[in-house]
Structures are given as structure tokens and as C-alpha cells.
Amino acid sequence: MAQQYVYFFGNGTAEGDATNKALLGGKGAGLAEMTQLGIPVPPGFTVTTEACVHYSKTGNYPEKMQEQMQVALSKLETSLGKKLGDIANPLLVSVRSGARVSMPGMMDTVLNLGLNSETVVGLAKASGNERFAYDSYRRFIQMFGDVVLGVPHHKFEHYLSAMKKSRNVAIDTDLGADDFKELVEQFLALVAKETGKPFPQNPADQLMLAITAVFGSWDNQRAKTYRRINKISDDWGTAVNVQAMVFGNMGDDSGTGVAFTRDPSTGEKIFFGEFLINAQGEDVVAGIRTPEPIARLKDVMPVVFEQLEAVYQKLEKHYRDIQDIEFTVERGKLFMLQTRTGKRTAKAAVKIAHDMVLEGLIDKKTAVLRVLPEQLDQLLHPMIDPKEVYTSIAKGLPASPGAAVGKVVFNAEDAEEWVTRGEKVILVRNETSPDDIGGMHVAEGILTATGGMTSHAAVVARGMGKCCVAGCGALDINEREKFFIAGGVTIKEGDFITINGTTGEVVVGSVTLVSPEFSGEFAILLDWSDEFRTLGVRANADTPEDARVAREFGAEGIGLCRTEHMFFDGDRIDAVREMILASNESDRRKALAKVKPYQKEDFLGLFREMAGLPVTIRLLDPPLHEFLPHTDEDVQKVAQASGLHFDQLKRKVSELHEFNPMLGHRGCRLGITYPEVYEMQVYAIIEAACELKKEGIDVQPEIMIPLIGHVRELEILREMTVRVCDEVINRSGVTLKYLVGTMIELPRAALTANEVATQAEFFSFGTNDLTQTTLGISRDDAGRFLPDYVHQGIYKEDPFVSIDVAGVGQLVEMGVVRGRSTRPDLKTGICGEHGGDPASINFCHKIGLNYVSCSPYRVPIARLSAAHAALKS
Amino acid sequence: MAQQYVYFFGNGTAEGDATNKALLGGKGAGLAEMTQLGIPVPPGFTVTTEACVHYSKTGNYPEKMQEQMQVALSKLETSLGKKLGDIANPLLVSVRSGARVSMPGMMDTVLNLGLNSETVVGLAKASGNERFAYDSYRRFIQMFGDVVLGVPHHKFEHYLSAMKKSRNVAIDTDLGADDFKELVEQFLALVAKETGKPFPQNPADQLMLAITAVFGSWDNQRAKTYRRINKISDDWGTAVNVQAMVFGNMGDDSGTGVAFTRDPSTGEKIFFGEFLINAQGEDVVAGIRTPEPIARLKDVMPVVFEQLEAVYQKLEKHYRDIQDIEFTVERGKLFMLQTRTGKRTAKAAVKIAHDMVLEGLIDKKTAVLRVLPEQLDQLLHPMIDPKEVYTSIAKGLPASPGAAVGKVVFNAEDAEEWVTRGEKVILVRNETSPDDIGGMHVAEGILTATGGMTSHAAVVARGMGKCCVAGCGALDINEREKFFIAGGVTIKEGDFITINGTTGEVVVGSVTLVSPEFSGEFAILLDWSDEFRTLGVRANADTPEDARVAREFGAEGIGLCRTEHMFFDGDRIDAVREMILASNESDRRKALAKVKPYQKEDFLGLFREMAGLPVTIRLLDPPLHEFLPHTDEDVQKVAQASGLHFDQLKRKVSELHEFNPMLGHRGCRLGITYPEVYEMQVYAIIEAACELKKEGIDVQPEIMIPLIGHVRELEILREMTVRVCDEVINRSGVTLKYLVGTMIELPRAALTANEVATQAEFFSFGTNDLTQTTLGISRDDAGRFLPDYVHQGIYKEDPFVSIDVAGVGQLVEMGVVRGRSTRPDLKTGICGEHGGDPASINFCHKIGLNYVSCSPYRVPIARLSAAHAALKS
After folding, report:
1. Which end of chain A is more exposed for a tag (fewer CB within 10 A), N or C?
2. Between chains, do B785 and A748 touch, taking CB under 8 Å as contact?
């Protein structure tokens, strides 16, 4: 038997149903399902996606497709008592594409197919409305001409405008039957001229041409681009739905509308939508008349409304999810034209998932899977009021989500000063450095001209949960004169701007923001997520404040505390610089003795906040020159402030200069060459822990050595760490468990993880650096080519955002497997930026990591993602 | 039966022989073997290395060792008719350490053991020489006191000096028997005071104490350090040789000497050495008297000389290698005390290996293995005359071997100018950049203050076979004022200095150099090497001149031609800069059209030189900013010279600035973002190849895409390359085979080599960059910590010099295995600096690479190393 390429639906039965989405497309499956449910749907048939794929590959229709269509068409004609091309009682159909997933705008619709210069007369008679018939005919010629024959839309519009002008009317509805008749003639002539052939008058030809056009549209550039962006396979193809026309524009007893079964913005359980009396769907889109709220339909057409209510309730119960429906009323009779799963905001998604569990419609597992982790960001940060209309003057990288409004300042000191006097500021810099931490902390948002998604500004901003637009190359910043130019506009210090870290936009002036809402339903949904996930979720946090936020968001520990961030605060930077400038170990130790009390204070705060939970503290990581000023001007300033000699400072700065600081003298290499620095840090950590332990607080320190490449490095530093810890613990007389572990952030560490694990009680994969080294890409410099790379599909995603599974992922998995081969109880986690990315979290779950660690504001996303990963595996 | 810990030798028989080196140590095995050969050797016994290992682990002698020693001692006493501790006729012995390999200076010797205040009287009587007896006794107390009892040497010397002073004599030999008697009393008192115990008078105790001291010395710090440096296992232990004393200081019929069976400097077949009449070995060392050439012995002791000649000839024939021998003549009787393989210079090694094959002593395979590849560098570069005595003012890294003398200049332009007027110059820079190529080319040698073994200066200098000392941190260079200060000395422009790239030394003034000698024997030995090796050897060469040198040295192709080096020469840099400054593709193409003729010319020269051999050409690799000036001053200069705007140039420079250029916009990333650049290069390559092919020259181009991380990059660029090549070939109407391949220099490329190989006909492992990324170490910045790392044994060798087998090596092997899994005939090579390192070459052979590629001057080393690798596997 030949394969079935055509599926009929109508009169309460259908050959397909909702399970046939892949074959019939979303629309076709929905129509079939609704028909089966006894819901009034204009009859028709669906040509399958397989037929499209066949056509796309061979340029021919599959065998028997046309015969099967003929059978379905006859069935359709019989059921309606009309015939395609019948002069007295013509059947009109719509032809619509419908892929497995919705691809809006990819392909236009052809309505009123079946009209020609003879059937239009029959339609006029049958409908008793000549104007309606010719209006339909001219619309058909235009749509068909545009979509199928490639005659540009605007050429038809030109004649329509001229006609309105000559008749001295403003809108289409003021034109009469004769006007449309004349327009039809003009349109037919236009098509003949543009295509060199008369407009196809044979409805059977029209149908085949329309179907072929829909098939062909699958491979047009626009569709291909859309699929690439939305990761839709090129092999799926589209189905084609051929359906009897119904008309909402046949008088005041007709109309059309769209509706959602719940409010798609808030998730509230109300019937939500709008309708127009005496109109077709395209009139709603055209925006000539303002639709009315769906509730008003009750007054206008009470019977229809009652039917519609029954239908939408039936559909939601049936699909167990919010439905987005389209309907038409033709002379008092309701027809459903589409039902599909409704798109919704994050807020609505959370509320609907929550409510449907309470209503018994879905279980918790389904509810958790209904909310996309990627969406949650919306709920956690302020955003520009969706009602606002604005234009941006520049667009950078969406480096840290949320939006912010404030006055522009150009350096961190100004930021702090302005905020002290009650201003809200946006810190605008070419790039930020650790020196700017104070200013970043008080600013509403951060805007930089250079640097990528994982530049200093971006990383720190995300850590602070603060809005940031980075790498906005269009900005021409003059930091000294305190202004910047973008998009031809000059913005001076003190001018208001708004930045949108979710989209990367920079907007002049102050735009209204809406606050995030961390609703009760949200908290409940996350609790449900926790019931399903097996992956632990920790946060990257450097301060007690960060730690508190993280804990509130549900973090189960700190996975990464960057001790160097503590080196900048207040006076301590002076002692740190003194340490760096010391020319021998003894002077270095003297300076370190000044730094130590600060560090200890930091750890006391952190441990207190995280009582009962593990806290992973990474020893000093960045190269020392990061703590020194760089320009002559700054060197001068620091020299004056600290009482150091300019020359001495300057010499040290140039002595410490590195060509590739990322691959330079940093991480454990500092611990090897200056053991006293790491020793001071370990003393500070373990003394703080012992003090709190004496107070009865449960402290769980995990000391982490960064940038290990060779097991010997770790062996040397672990020995030192254990010696110091045991000495302090013995002296304190407390019982304290602590772990010593390492970051795995260099390929060599992953490759030799079996050796490294002999010296490490835990591994934390530092996938930022591991990505940089494995791919050989500096995240700070990648801005110049990585967008091209993602665009050309070399990397499907920015590998600094979503883990590169084939390369970096391979090393991470190797690290886990090899590490556990020599230490079966090895604890493993990830603390790179990827720890907050849903796809990466899914990967972490699959390879059996114990936990992910991400910025506090991404903890909810990580909890939900981890649940998704567990439920899907 | 108990294990045998003691091996007797004497009277023509021995329990061990030369095959027992591991058990008896080199010295013990040599003594046993000589005894077996009927050569006169004072009898004795060897305590095995196993006994030492047992003692080292447990602190106790192994069971039965002492009993076995007692048996051997009795045998010794019987054979000589003397007894240890016998008052009338005392046996005296020497106690010497002797490990598997020679560890000179690790452990002192104890001579004359067996003397005490009673036996010394017997010795005086038996020898009829009281002075000799007490001289021997005081020497024994001092040696034993120092070595075994730990009484410092200088405290004994103090009494000896005082004695000489009081007797008013200058040298020891002027002291008489009574003086020594008095000294003996003073020494005995000294030992008693220092150790709190009387000097051990019982010879049996003396012997056990001495043996224990030798055992213990295996684990002293000096020995451990020596072993670490020389890669000797700590588990080997040392043997102890106890041997009857013979005395060369018993009058003019006695004497002592050392000799080599051939000249160890030149390899000439002459008996070479020196001797002293009436002396002990230590007198030779003390340097009080000047030894006489061995040939003079023929006149002094003709019979002994004849015996000695017979012995040395027997030994060389027996061992089939040059021997280093020690002998003593006691009252006209010859005793051999040691024979071992003689150390020799590279030149001698080559000549001896060559000659011995011709003499039928060894086969070619043995000859090849007799020459160490590491040594060959000596033969390929000028070196400081070994006879010169000099002091250095600073020491940097030995970045490129050989030595050079010249006048100091501080920039490349001066270098070229000075050389034009006939001067020889040394180019001194803080660091070199590609801009300096011209100056480097004409300079005798290069000296830099910063940068490591693989810095630009080092890499380029090695490529040119030019002497270079890099990273000499002690230099304080003022490039503007044109002077530098080092070791307190100020060296101005035009002053002569000498640099030694083999040691890293910097010397004031002009030191005499000796030229390299590429002897006929050397060429023959390399030909023999070629018979054994399976690994191909290519050279890294960028110019026809380099290529010619490489070919002369035996390179079988070019493994890496760096096209960017061609970008700097002469005028072309202007066109290159124009290309970089172009703001759109069309302007870029215009500038590229100017560069192309130059590139094509380069390739024509290269292909011609390498006719019949493959030439691998790498497309542009460095980031574009490397071609732009960096300081404001240079920007100004370039702007003027090229007619560009200062501001425009300056903006571009800052626009292209990168934080980590090593991980930046370079390699194939340039090819992806500016396809027209690579396209121009491919046109130039393939047009040059086609032209020559038309002339009938065999051209084998291999086009190599650098820095691939993802197969898609290669796919895109390979498509372009094939399109261009096929177009040009078709147009030319020739038949030309070419290959398209890639560098594997990023971990991701190795990890996904199975994918990458689908697009590559060959892989060339760029182990410089692969080491940087795998270890996360920038070679330009590593100078600050890598020496510490090598010193602390974290990496046994500088991983940029010798491949890090466990990490980088693992990726290379993975790359080969995975690459061949999808393309079995994949050609694989290595073109990093490691391609010229013997240990790395051995690794390349083991994992089955097809070839190594190194700088032209290392081709001979690579050929020999490859032969060693093949012969050893």
C-alpha cells in the first residue's frame, strides 16, 4: 500500500490526532484533535511533512500524493455540498503551512483559494453579497500573487491607494462592490504583466501551486535563518493545511477572535483575549479597528460565548496546559481554527504550573518541567516595563540581566561620591578593573565599551546580580573629559541613561522599570524542583552579603569564594601593595601580617552566614600586577597616597608586566614562589573556623588551590595547608573537619586527574579558564571573532556561556572519571560561569558531578535546571 | 642459602665481572673484570649495592653480610700474607664507594685503613721507611676523621700548617718522620676532643665504620641533589670496594698515573695521559707537582710502560670503547686500580665511533648509539676556545647555542647600518619583535633581558642557527640612551662583548672563539644513522637560505614555513599595514594585491630550493597587531614613513590591542574573519607551484591551517583552499598534487582529532602552543616561575624544551590515534621546538609520528636522535 501523505479531518472524525505533530505539524495535529473532540472545526485535510521533505529533496511530489489529495478534496466537497471551481456553489479553502513547531512569519497564508472570475459570481449569489465576493476575490489575487507568484505586495497596495484616492475615501471598508470589481481587473492585469502569464483561473491549479509554494518556503533563506537561530532541524519539513473557508466578515452576526485559556502575562485563571465583529483575522492584524475584550462577546453573542467557554475549558482540560486559540463566527455559527500551547511570561509560567498542580490537572513533575530555567532571569531582576516604547542608541553584550536607570559617571570614585549624596548612577568605563569594585558595588548598573560576556565587568556584575552591558563597541568614551558619544548622541556626566542587561541596549534618558517579583508560587515550584534534583546547588560568593542572598535563594553552600576580591576593600589594598613591593620574604611576611586580620574578619563573616553548610575558599588567584596601578597617572596617585616612591612603584609595575597574564604568574604558581602568601591565607581561614567552632557554630571549610597543572604543585601546597591547619586546630583544642582540594581549570590537570586526585579531596572544575585554555581563546579578546564564530555556526553557542561539550566537556568528564579512579569518594563540582547555565547544568548532571556553583542570582535557575536534568534523564 | 653480599677479586679470579655493574657498581665490576682478564689488580672484595639498599631502608646490615666480609677478608689476608691489625705485617686497605654510574665527588675515599698506633710501627719496619709509615698514618687519621667521624678537614690542616710553620718549611714533603709522629699525636687528640671518644684503634672497627659511612653517604643531601640533576634512581645504592693498598710513594721506582686509551678531546688513536713518580693519587690532585705526559714513562720505566701498553690495548679491545684508567707502580710493579668508559668531547665521540667501526671493533649500530645527540650542538656552532679563561658579568638563558663576539648595538636599524659598514655586532634588546628580524639576521648574536627559551628572540635565533642569550634579567638596558648595566659594569654602544648561547654567559670584551668542524666522520655517522631511523626529519625554514642550509644538513622536506616572517621584509610591510588599516574588504583586497607578488616570489624560491621534497606552508598565524608599531614614537615614525595619519594608526593599534594575544585573534581565526587574506596566500602558493611545475620542477606543496580548535573552522577554510587550488591548477593545465592539513596546537583539536581528521590530510603538532595551552603557561612570561618549578622538580625539564609526556604528550598521542581512527593514512609530524630535542624525538618515534621538523641547525641532532629512538625501541 502506498504511504499516506494526506490526512482528512471533519464532521467529528479525523485520520490524525494530537500525537501526530511530527507528521501533521502543530496546526494540523491540533485541527485533527479538535475535530475528534467534537469541537466545531471547518473540515479539510493536511498534507504531511514527509511529503514536504520528499519534495525538498527531489523537487517532485511523492508518488500518490496528488491522488490522495483528490480523494480528500472530494470528501471535503461532499461533506459541504460545494465543489472547488463550481460556478454556482464554489468551495473556497485556505492553505496554511504548519511545521512541527511554530515558525511565525516564515510563510504567509493563502485565503479564499478557489475564486476566479466565474466562481466569484457564484459566491456573490450564494452569499447574497456582491461586495463581499469581490472583496474576497481581490484579497485572494493579492495574497496568491504575492506569496505564490512573487508579485511584490506593495505593487497591489499602489492600486488600492489610487482607488481610495480617486473615490476620495480613507479606508477599505468605504469602497463598494464596483470599486472592488475594478480593482480585480487592475490586479489581474498587474499579475499578467509581472509574471508574463495570466492569473491562474483554474482552482485545481491554484491549489497545487499554493501547496508547492508552501513546500518551497521551507527552504527559503528567512526560514533557514529562523531555524538556525531556534535550533530547528532542517530535516523536519512543514505540513500544509487545506481547510474550508469560513467568513467572519459576513455581517454583524459574524466575527473573529483570538484568546488564551489563562492570562499569558500573569497566569491568572481568566479567559483572556479579544474579538472583532464582522471581520477576518487579517483585519485584526491590520489594526484598523480596535478589537474588544473577549468578555464583551458575552453581551454581543451570548450563545456563541457560551459555546466558546465550553470549548476552551474542554481544550485546556484535554491538553492540560494553557491554550492559545483562534475562532471565527460565521453567521452565528462558531468555528475553531486553531489551538496550540500558549506562550507565556515567566511569571505566568510559574503561576500556571503551580495552579494546575493544585487543580489536579498536572503532577509536580510536569509542573517543574513546564517552567523553562532560561526564562527565570526575568523574575529575578528589574526589567524595562513591557509597556514602554523606547529606542536605543547602541547595543552591547547582554552581560548581566535586568535593567537599570541612573546618571552617568565615568569612574568608580565619582560613583561612590555621587551615591553618597543620594544619586543613582550608571558606571560607564572602557573596561573595569578590580580597582573599580567599590564603584560597581554602589552603581545601579555597569556599561563598558570593551570586554566580552566573561570580562571583569560581566563576571563581577553577575556575581552582584547587577545589570551590566559590556563590550558596547559603539561607545566612544572620553573618561578624562567625562562624556561619551554613541549613535551620534553625546552623553555627559550626570545625564540619565537606561541600560538593559538582558538585551544589551543603551537608551537615552530614564525609562520606567518594573521590579522583580519573587512570588510564593515561585518558591513552591523551586521546592518541588528540589524534590527531583540530585545535583547540589551552591553559589559563588565572596562576601557575607553575597552569601546571605545565596542562602535566601536556596544555595546549599559556597562553591567558590574568591579571596582576592577581599584584597581591594578599603585600606587593605595598601598592605597588599606593600606585600607586592617587598623585595624579600621577610618584608613580605611583615606586610602579610597586616593583611591577615582583614582576611580573617572576612572569613568569620562568611562562615557565620553559612553556618552548617560547606564553604569553598580559593586561595589567591590573579597575578600580582592586578593589584597595582597601570597608567602613569594612577601610579602617581597610588604613590602619593601610599607614601611609596613613584619610581619604585613604576619599576615594579613594569617588572610584573605580562604578555599573557591569563597564562602567567598566578594561581598556585604564586603559592609555589611565595609560599608565605598562601600560608597567611590558610592561617586566616582556619583560625576563623576554629574561633567559630569554639562558639559552637558548625563550620565546614574547604580550602581550594587554584590553577594546578601538575600533581607536585598540589602536593607541595597541600602539605603546607595541612601543616598549618593541624597546627591551628591542635592549638585551639577544637575538633574541626576541613577539606583540601583543587580547581581543575587546565587541560593538563584534567588529563592527569588520576594523579591530581591523590592529593585532592575535591575537584572544582573552573570551566571559565578551562574553556580559555582548551579552546585557546581569551575571553577578554574573543569579542572580535566569537560573534562571527557563533554566527557561522562554528560554535553553536558562545562556549563561555554554555559549555562546549565536545571539547571542554570531554575534559571535565575525563577529570571526573580519572579522578575517581584513584579516589572513589572524590567530591566534584563546577564553579565556572557555566554553573548557572541550564544546558551546562544538564551536562553536569549527566556526568555525575556532585554540585554546581553559580552566582547567587542564578541559584533558582540552577535548582530548576538540575530538576529538569534529573527528570529528563 | 643466604644471599651473596660480598664478592672477592684477586689472584686472577673474581666472583663478579663487567656484567655485574648494577650489583657491584662500575668500579667493582671493572676491578673484577680486570682481575679475570689477568691484569694485575691489588686484590680485595666488593660489598654489593644491595647491601647498601638494605642498610638505607632499615638502618641495619643485611643478615650474613658481616660473616661474608669476614670470609673475604681472610681470603685477602691469606693471598697477601698480611693480616688486618697484625702488628708485624699489617694489611692496609682502601675503602671506596662505587655506584652503578660514576658520581664524582659524592663520597670521599678512605686510604690506608688498618693503621693504628701499633700497626704503624709494623709498617715502618716492613717498608723500612718510618717517614712513609707515619705520613700514611697521619693521612689516614685525617681522611677517616673527616669522612667517617665528621671532624672538619680544615681543623687537621690547621695543625699541619702550624707544624710547617714551626719547622719553617713550605711543603709537606719537607717534613720528616718525627714531625709526622708529632702530628699524629695532635690529630689523635683533635679527634678525641671533637668526637668525645678516642680515635678507633681497632682495624676491624675502622673497616665497619668506613663501610657504614659509605652506605650512609648514599643518602646525604649532596648525593641526592646530584642524583636528581642527573636523573639517577634513589633506589640503586652504592657498592663499597675494599682493596689492598699499594703505594706509589715508596721511592723513585714507584709512581701513579691516569690515562685514556685514545685522546678524549680529539678522538685520535694515541695513548693519552700523565703520571707522577713517587706519588700517590691524591698528590696528583693536590697539584703541588706537575705530572708528566704518559709517553715519558717509556723512558723512566720502560718495562712498566710496556706492561701498561699491553694492558690498555687489552682493555680497549675487551671493552670495545675508550677506557679511562688509573694505575700505581709500587717498587717497579704495575697495579691497575680502575678502568672505566672514558668521557669524551662530541668531536672525539664522533671520531672514535667512526674509527672503531673501521677497526672492526664495533658495528655501525653501536657507533651510532655511542654519540649522544645532546652533544652534537658543540659541533655545529662556534664556541669559546676551551683554553680561554674569562669571567662573565651576567648569565641569562642559553637560548640558542654557540658563541659570538661583536660590538653592542641597541636596535635593529643600527645593527643593519653598522654591519653595512663592516662591523660585527651583537644586538642587545629588552625583547625582540618581528620588527627586529632584519637586525637579528645581520647580528653575530642576540642578547635580551626578558623572554624565555621560546621567546621570539630565542625561536628566531635558533631558526637562524644564531647564538642567543635570552631573559638575562641582570641587564638594565637603556635602549634610548644606548647603554646597559650588568654586574656593576656599564657597556655602551660600540663596546665589544662576547655571549655564550650554550651557557647563557655574557662576557665583557672579545674572547677567542673556535669554529665548528663538520668533519667527514660526522657526515658518515649521520649517514649510518639514516640507515636505522624510521622517523622522517624535516626542517622549519622560512626562506630559501634557511631551506638550503636545512637541505645540506639532510632535511627531507620543510615541516614548517612561517609565512608571516615574509611579511616584514623590506617594502612589503607597508602593504601589509595598509591591509590591516583597511576598513572594508574591498580596500583590504586592494592592499593584499600588493602583498601577493612578494609572497609568490618567496614561495618560488622556497619550492625551487626544495625541489623533489615536500614543503609545508603555514598560513598567517600571528595577530595583526604584531605588524603594527606599539610605542607612540614608533607609531609616529611609521605614520611618517607610510604617509598614514598618526591618529588613524594609533586608533587601529589600540583597537587591535589584546590582553592575551596568545589566545587572541590569530591563526585560522583571521582566516575566518578575513577570508581574503588566506585566499591571497593560497593563490600565491599554488600559482608559484604551478609555474615551477611547468618548468618541470617537482613541487610538493602542503598547505597548513594553524590554530584549529573546531572541525568547522577547518572545513570552511579547506573548502576555500581547495577551490582556489583547483581553479589555479585547472587554469595552468598542469598536474599537481597538494595536501591540505592543519596544526594541532590546541587541546580541543587533539581531543576532537577524529573530527578534525575528516578535513585534514596531515596533522602537524605545534607543541609550543600546545604546551602553552595544556599547561596554561605563557612561554613569554614563564621566566618568573618556571626555573623555580624545574628546580623544585615539579617539571623535571623545562616543558618548552623537552615535551611534557604525561600531559602534552598524552594529547599528541590522542591526536594521532583519534586522527587515524577516521583517516588511517593521516600523515603526522611535529613542528614545535620539541622537534629538535632528543628526548622528545624519542617520544615521537614511540607514538608513531611520520616525521619531526626542527630548525635547520638541529637537523643532524634530529637524524641521530631518530636513529637512537629506533635502535633502542
Report:
1. N
2. no
